[in-house]
Amino acid sequence: MEKTIKDRLIDVFDDLGEANQKKFKNKLCDRQKEPRVRRSATEKAADSIDLADLMVTTFTSKDAVSVSLEILEAIGCREQAAELREVTGHTGSSDSVQDMPAQPSPPSNDKHFIDRNRTALIQRVNNIDAILDELYEKEIIRQEEYNAIRAEKTPQSKMRALFDGPINSAGTGGKDTLYKVLMKLQSYLMKELGAK
């Protein structure tokens, strides 16, 4: 069976060893480009598998490779960077997350983009804690709503709770803000849904 991007990342992170993995996580937290990774998230990544999972869920498979290469080069692990580049056939720039077009405003239609794509968003959005962090900072959700949604067991139940509670209450302004947050954190999915 062909190895996935996540499998390739696990192999490379295994090769790093404990000291370089620590440097990698530290550099990942210091990275200024979006999406940002919180230190608490890297602290939860106890091993190579957790770290690879964090990279893929935060950046998508394609950008996880770009960002990993960027960090490996920055911490001087050029051998592992070369190995990752070779096994993934990656040739693109590490700025691919930033190369996305500027955020378009939600398409004008009688039904908001968020409402039209509710089912797909519930099924496919996976980086929900980061989305909740953004919505909390923008005061779309309150502390108790934030805690209640995070306590849900699955990504799908978290998204349903988000839609049925705070986003429903916040109306169009809340949906517009969620749209912008999703464009920032789940740009490839949003692009795909917008194209339908």
Write the layout of secondary structure elements.
Elements: H1 5-30, H2 39-44, H3 48-74, H4 78-88, H5 113-116, H6 118-124, H7 128-137, H8 143-151, H9 155-185, H10 187-194
Short précis:
The protein is mostly helical and 196 residues long. It is built from ten helices and no strands. It folds into two domains: 5-88, Death Domain, Fas, CATH 1.10.533.10; 113-194, Orthogonal Bundle (Death Domain, Fas).
Overview of this structure, please?
The structure is a single chain. This protein is an all-alpha fold and 196 residues long. The chain folds into 2 domains: 84 residues, Death Domain, Fas (Orthogonal Bundle), CATH 1.10.533; 82 residues, Death Domain, Fas, CATH 1.10.533. Helix content is 71%, strand content 0%. The longest helix is centred in the C-terminal third of the chain and has 31 residues. The relative contact order is 0.11.
Keyphrases for this structure?
about 200 residues, mainly alpha, Death Domain, Fas, 10 helices, about 70% helix, elongated
CATH topology of the largest domain: Death Domain, Fas
Instruction: Give the uncertain stretches in residue-range form.
Output: 93-109
How many beta-strand segments? 0
Order of helices and strands, N to C? HHHHHHHHHH
- Biggest sheet record: none
Shape-level CATH architecture of the largest domain? Orthogonal Bundle
CATH class of the largest domain: Mainly Alpha
N→C terminal distance: 32 Å
The value of Rg in angstroms is 18 Å
Strand content: under 5%
Domain count: 2
Count of DSSP H/I helices: 10
Which class best fits the helix and strand makeup? mainly alpha
Q: Which outline best applies?
A: elongated
> Mean of residue pLDDT?
84
- CATH superfamily label of the largest domain: Death Domain, Fas
Task: Please bin the fraction of helical residues.
Answer: over 70%
